[in-house]
């Protein structure tokens, strides 16, 4: 096991394209950290630089107490699991698991003992004599995991290892991976574009966009306190709704007014903690962020002043007891409210919605979250 540290790491290609910009990150011994972001954000490049498969243009990478910038991948004491499994098709499962140990000239008795230990851990014992072509996708992924585990490295690196699996198997493998990490307690860096996977697996998640680390924190911290509009939009399913407008003072209250007029426009009295913030000036342009679950259909027992939007329902996506209600406002072609499924709600009909004031976010024009204290 080992601490992994990135200090001001950059990756610039000969064309001038900067894939990773000034990335700094400390990963504790035994921690499970997930790099998450859209395709092309630099997360896989960052992982490959840690592995030594990509050169570093600038900065320092440390594994344990050793700077590894110029250390060959095979000498970094790491094990990597790829999206494509990368198994040897002509070898049996036993031979695939044993390969790295035999390359290190580990005694045969120790090799067999370690292979059987890992195979037992991953449920591969009945398959040791089969070749990869005789295995399902999930079984092949377990062999790829086993080939990494058998080496007992200082750190594991995973590059979207579950993306080729179907949804049900992917969920099952996530559970297995989390259980394995709890048993092995080895430093792990995991790359995915799936924010649900990141939230499920990571002790901490690192959100990246355009080669820049946007935010680092526990899954709950990043979900509840996003520091930028990008993080707020990327973490959470369905994604956060955004409304362009400005704030205006009405007596002691601060009100957000969406651009546009009519009953479909957002008008929201902000929480007192926001209203008391002198930095939020009258008529200041801001973006309001509301997660779908923070919209509430108006009920007869609610005060009339809670109603803040009366849009037309566009579509309804039933999800069992809940439903995603898609509606339109003057500046947001599509917004989503998640609520208990109600057969009285119909497409084309108006729907009175309020917003839970405790669940709102305000963002500056450049995307940073506005001060709310």
Could you characterize the architecture of this molecule?
Helix 2 packs across helix 3 (108-122). The protein is built from 9 helices and 20 strands. It is an alpha+beta fold. A 6-stranded mixed sheet has the order 6-7-8-3-9-10, sandwiched between helices. A 5-stranded antiparallel sheet has the order 13-12-11-14-20. It has helices at 43-51, 93-103, 108-122, 137-149, 167-184, 195-201, 219-224, 229-234, 272-275; strands at 4-12, 18-27, 32-36, 58-63, 66-67, 78-81, 155-159, 187-192, 204-209, 212-217, 241-250, 253-258, 267-269, 285-290, 295-297, 313-319, 322-329, 332-340, 353-355, 360-363. The mean pLDDT is 86.
Number of DSSP helical runs = 9
Q: Into which percentage range does the β-strand content fall?
A: 25-35%
Report how far apart the termini are.
41 Å
Helix content: 10-25%
Backbone CA Rg: 25 Å
N to C succession of SSEs: EEEHEEEHHHEHEHEEHHEEEHEEEEEEE
Shape estimate: elongated
Give the SSE map.
Layout (H helix, E strand, L loop, with lengths): L3 E9 L5 E10 L4 E5 L6 H9 L6 E6 L2 E2 L10 E4 L11 H11 L4 H15 L14 H13 L5 E5 L7 H18 L2 E6 L2 H7 L2 E6 L2 E6 L1 H6 L4 H6 L6 E10 L2 E6 L8 E3 L2 H4 L9 E6 L4 E3 L15 E7 L2 E8 L2 E9 L12 E3 L4 E4 L10
Parallel strand pairs: 3-8, 3-9, 6-7, 7-8
Antiparallel strand pairs: 1-2, 1-4, 4-5, 9-10, 11-12, 11-14, 12-13, 14-20, 15-19, 16-17, 17-18
Helix pairs in contact: 2-3, 2-4, 3-4
Which features characterize this protein?
373 residues, alpha+beta, 6-stranded mixed sheet, 9 helices, 24% helix, elongated
